[in-house]
Every structure is written in C-alpha cells, then in structure tokens.
Amino acid sequence: MARCPSCATDNPDSSRFCGNCAAPLDSGGVSADTMTMARPASAPPSRHSKPSSTTSSADEGRFMPGTLLLDRYRIVALLGRGGMGEVYRATDLTLNQPVALKFLPEDVGRDDRALQRLLDEVRIARQVSHPNVCRVYDIGEIDGHRFLSMEYVDGEDLASLLRRIGRVPADKALEIARKVCAGLAAAHDKGVLHRDLKPANVMLDGRGNVLIADFGLAAVSGQIQAHEIRHGTPAYMAPEQLAGKEVTVRSDIYALGLLLYEIFTGKRAFEAASMAELMKLEESGAPLSLTTMVKDIDPAVERVILRCLAPDPRNRPVSAISVAAALPGGDPVAAALAAGETPSPDMVAASGETEGLRPRVAIALLAGVAIGLLAVAWLTGKTTALDKIPFDTPPDALAVKARDLARRLGYTQPAQGVASGYATDGDYSDWLAKSDPARTRWANMGAGQPAFIYFWYRQSPRYFAPRRELSVDEDLPVMDVSGEVEVSVDTAGRLILFRSVPPQKEEAKGPPPPADWNALFAAAGLDPAKFQAAEPQWTPLAAFDTRAAWTGVYPAAPKIPLRVEAASWRGQPVFFKLVSPWTRPGRMEKTATGAAARARELLELVIIVILFVGSGLMARRNTNLRRADVRGAARLAGFLCAANAFTAVLSMYHLPNDGELTQIAYALTEALFQAAIVWLLYLAVEPFVRRRWPRTIVSWTRILSGKLRDPLVGADILIGVAFGLFWIVILELAFVHDQARGGVPNPGGVDQLMGVRFMASGLIGQLTSAIGFAFGTFFLFFLLRM
Q: Which of 185, 382, 615, 737 has the smallest number of CB atoms closer than 10 Å to its CB?
C-alpha cells in the first residue's frame, strides 16, 4: 500500500493520486489516465481459449489473435490498455458481427469492488440508449476474469485523432461537439453522470459517427458516496470534484467544456505539473482565450466553452442540450428527431428563437390589441343584454329591499345566513323568440319587465351549509329551515317571487285570519284592481291553509298575459309568484328517457371512460419509457390546483364558523381532482406533441421552465392575444348581425354584477377550464389518430 504524504491514507500501489484528498503519490505531472484501476498484467492461458501459440507478447495482451472464448468470441486484436483494463476487438460467431470485449486488469479482476464497478457499468450503460452513446451488450466470465461485450467502433478515439492532426477543423469540430452534447444529454436524461468525459472516451468511426464510451465510472445522480467524488481523470475534473465537494450534472458540463476546448484548439485548457497547480488554475477562472490560438474561431463557440468552464457550477449551462443550442447553427431538436428520439423538454425549451419580435412588429401588434379591446368593448355594448336592461339599483340596495319586504310580511327573526345573486330567465328569451316574429320583440328589456335578468335574495335563521356545492343559489341548499325566506326581484326592485318556510310546530289558534295580498302586489308593482280572481293552479312546497290566484297582463308589456299565484299560512304569506306563459312546472317535468337520451348518456359515459382509462395507460407507458415531462406536468397541475382553489375561495359562500374549514376542504378536494385529471392528460399527450411537433410548444415548455420573461414567450403571447381578439371581434360582429335580424341578446356574465371578486373568479375559472378542455380535446384527437 502507498501512504499519502498529505493525509496519511493508505492507497493501492497502482494509484498515482490519493483517493481521499487527491494529492499526488509520486512526483509525476497530472495524467490524463483514469485514476481508479491498476494496469493489467498478462493472464495465464484459459481452459476456454484456443491460443495459436504458447506465448503472447506484451503488445498482444493476455489473449492472442485467433483465441476462441466461450466458443463464441474469436479474438481479432488488442485495441488498447488503460487503468480500467484491456479492450479487444473480437468477432461474435453467434451473431456474426464485430464486438469489443473489455477485461478488468488481472490483479484486480477478483477484487469485489472492481467486479461491482464492472457490473455497475453494464447496468448504468444499459439505461442509456442513444446513437451517440456506445452500446453495452452483456457481461461474461472466463476462468474468473470478468469482461463485458460492447459495440465495436471501427475508428479511433478523439485523443488519438488530436495527437495525430492537432485541432479539428471548425465545421467538423461543431459536428462532433453537437453529437457529444446529444449523447451526454441522453445520459443525463436517465439520471446518469459519466464522470470521466475526455477525448480518450469519445470514439469516431469511419462514417463520421461520434460515440461516448467507457461508463466505468458512471453513476446515478444523487447516489455517489463521498469517497467516490474524486474518482476519475484529474485533468478533466471540475473544481468542485477536485475539491471533493460534489459531482453533479454541471461537473460533467465542466468536463464537456474542457473537451470542446481541446477539440477546437488542439490543446488542453489547463496544463499543470501537479494536482495542487491544477486546482489553482481551475479556481482562478478562464483559461487562455481561444481566439489567441485560433484566429478564425466563432465568438459564440468561445462564449459557450467559457461558460462551461465557469468555476462556480451555478454559472455553467444547465444541461448539455443548452450547450448544443448555444453553438453556432445548433439545432438539437432536429438532430433528435432525425435520430428517431423524442427531444427532452429541456431540449425543446433551448431550441427555437432567442429573440422576440422586431420593435416595429411588436408596436403594431400592441396597437392592434388596443384597437381590438376598444372594438370588443363597443361591440359588446351592442350585443349584450346587460346594456339593454336598467341597473339603476345596485345589488346591495336590492338586498335591502328584499330584507325589508320579508320584515313587513312578519319574518322578523334575525338572519344568520344571507346570500344573494343575479340570474337569467332563459325560458323567457326562448319563448319570446318563438312567439313574436317582430325584430323589436326585445324592446321591453329596457323596461326591465318581464325580467330577463333578475336578482334573488335568501336569508335563514341558521347559517347555510352548501357542502360540496360551495355556493348558495336559488335552489341549493334546499329550503327546509323554519323562517327561511327567498325573494326574487327584477333589476328595478319589483317583486317576482316570494316563498318562505312556516313554523314546523305551532299551537292551534282557531281559524286562520285572511291574508293581506296588497303588500305583495305593491311590491310587485301591480295594481290589484286590474287583475281578476282565478282558480289557483300552482302549489307551493311550503305548508299553507289559503291559496289565491289572479290573472292580468304585465304593465310594461300588455300583450303578455300574467298570472299571479299566492298562498299563506295562518294569514302570513308563504308563497307569491308571477307566472308567465313560459313558466314551466319543473317539479312535474319528466326526465328524458327516449333512445336519443340514452344514446347521449352512453356516449358521455364512453368518453369519460376513454379519457380516464386511456390517458392512464398512455401516461403510465410514457412514464415507464421516461418520455413523460414529469416536472412540467407537476408544475402545470400545481398551477391549476392553486388557480382552481383560489377561484373557489373567491366565489364560495363563506361561513363565520368551523363550517368554513369544511368548505375549504371541499374546494381543495375539487381543485386537486381537476388538477390530477390535467396532470394525467398532460403525461399522456405532451410526449406525442413533443415527438411530432416539438417546435409548436417551445414557448409552452419555456413557460413551464419558469422563463416567463423570455422574448419568444412574450412574442407568442402577444401574437396569441392579438389573434384571439381578432376572432372575438369577428364573433361580436356576427352577434350584431344576428340581433339586427331579431336574434336573442347575449346575457353575458351576470356574476360580474356582484363585484370584483366574482369577476376575478370568473376570469380565472375560464383560464383553468380552457386548459382542461384543450388537453381533453388533444387527448381525443391523438387517440383517434392512433
């Protein structure tokens, strides 16, 4: 054993540097050899071999040419020796193809750790399948000597080429650099760190192919032990690796920078006579400028190499793909597609334009967006019903009117639960469109009666418990609490509906007193003298002892008949309703049960099953094949979950008790469910888009990578907004044309009438719904195509 003069650690006699502190164990300079294994010695003849002579020269290695191993491999020649063993060219007689056989050095061939390293090399190398990575086939054993069979490259290694010709010509150097980046990126994509990237481990064959070889020191990221950090070739180690701190993807990027420096200049970036000198040179900063050695080198090449050689890992490129993209003319996406590979998300994000729109184009688009917004605002005023209906009374004032009416009718119990909102009467617009052919049939909207948009108000002696619905509306939760009241009025505050729940238990007080309906008629803006008594037809849900009905017409629309239905319990009104020709008895309507309805329900069920089962299977397959963008899917799902939860919190009915926690739990559950669906669809669909049309999602991938200020992202968003506004203007013009012919006015979003938080909730909800709908549509599209 050789004792380290610096830290007193015992090292194998074959070691040149200490495995603990990397201090030199002899007086030699820094070598380019991998400092992990001893040099091989000759091996005794194998009982499985058939040597052509009884001796072998040192140049022929332990196996003579013509030797047959395991009745399958015939040795052709020794290709080379190194710290990791001997490599032979052989012929696989079973498959009739050339292979390379790599044997451990004889003196360490029986070392458990060395054998484990060989097994690890096979296991890790098999994870990486790429045209620019040397393939490893299998592992075998001959008389205790382990070897692995791998792809034979009929060419030479890059180190030999550089010694022979000096630097590589610029165009060829760029080609080699891109292919090395592609192979290294494929390894990193599987979580594999090479840890020994150097010219001697890059092979070039006669057809110009470039392959990264020798994964003997490769390891899975995050699984490298502290004592293994310094394993490798010191001359091609990153500063943090030499210091024994860490080895990461960016450590391989540093080695890539040293390799590229040597390819383009023919010289090493740092020449040092000792480990201490090498560490000092690397930590001091940039090496000698490339332009001082190669006059015609592209400045972009020097910039990317110097970025790779930054002493601080945080200042280096994040991936080998970003290095390839920064090289002149680099297009790693095209290279991946040509090789039949699916480009990684990082590769897609690094591709495409790096600049946004030209100033003139951007200014023109911004002006177009501004004009489009003004046009949409003006056209919307022509088409929406909100501009045709008077909203002189704000919602808070309408709620006060409704509460005062309830008090005048005897419902004076303090209210704990209060809710209100706007709604539209779609039955009215459908009836009017069918019954009145005149183009002026919507003129009564300006009078607010009959009410196309109305305001409802509910109060209860208890707090409402909406549960999973999260919000309170006209019908949910069901009115079942004594003293609960609902009042609906038009936008001018005229009564449309009143209903309440009488006491559940009450002592008998003799005959019921007569009810005074005048207060209700006055609240509805109706003159009782203009109405005739009629037989009641509409039965309320609440208990009653008196019913009454009247017929007449709407004061503001004398051509439309009106029926008033009322009921009371012991003289107190429990029901008052304006019944129009379009009012439907909803409790009596039957659910559609015909063949068409059943077919529609079956189709919906089939689509849901296909979405869940199909997307689940495709997502699982993409994940197992390591094609899925798991990080992007998680970020998208996280955004949607947060957005949906925020939307629910804005619009939900809030409670001043522990029921609020239940509401929030329901909101989070729903948000997580919706996010999980999109997450599943994204894992299922996105890899196919990235494989077939990667350039269409460059901006999208950059957004998921957090590059919100990227010029291309901004340009695409601006173009998308301008395009979207263009189509909105077209649709609004179509609405204007339709309404000029008597079409139904667009009711718009009535929730925005309730305030800013409801408006914000609607806008965010539309965004999340659009994303979910888009991925669902894309999934069905790809499913049909497959």
A: 737
